[in-house]
């Protein structure tokens, strides 16, 4: 199905290939402690980031090897 024929219309999707690949232990050393516990599973895993832009929100879905669903997701409010 193309985006033009989808009902209701799909948001815009982008896939950023290679993002998250070859992440090394300690890569997130400067991350806030509450977020750090959520990122520890990324060490030594390949993956990618899927970006969904809808309205004034950009959702980042981080996919990692050996994880069947997005390993991490965050919504970013875009400037208007």
TrEMBL record:
The domain of life for this entry's organism is Eukaryota
- Name of protein: PAP1 protein
Please name the source species. Answer: Haematococcus lacustris
């Amino acid at each position: 199905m193309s985006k033009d024929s989808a009902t209701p219309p799909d948001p815009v999707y982008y896939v950023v290939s290679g993002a998250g690949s070859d992440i090394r232990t300690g890569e997130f050393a400067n991350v806030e402690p509450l977020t750090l516990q959520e990122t520890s599973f990324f060490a030594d895993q390949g993956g990618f980031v899927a970006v969904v832009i809808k309205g004034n929100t950009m959702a980042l879905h981080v996919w990692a090897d050996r994880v069947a669903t997005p390993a991490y997701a965050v919504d970013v409010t875009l400037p208007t």
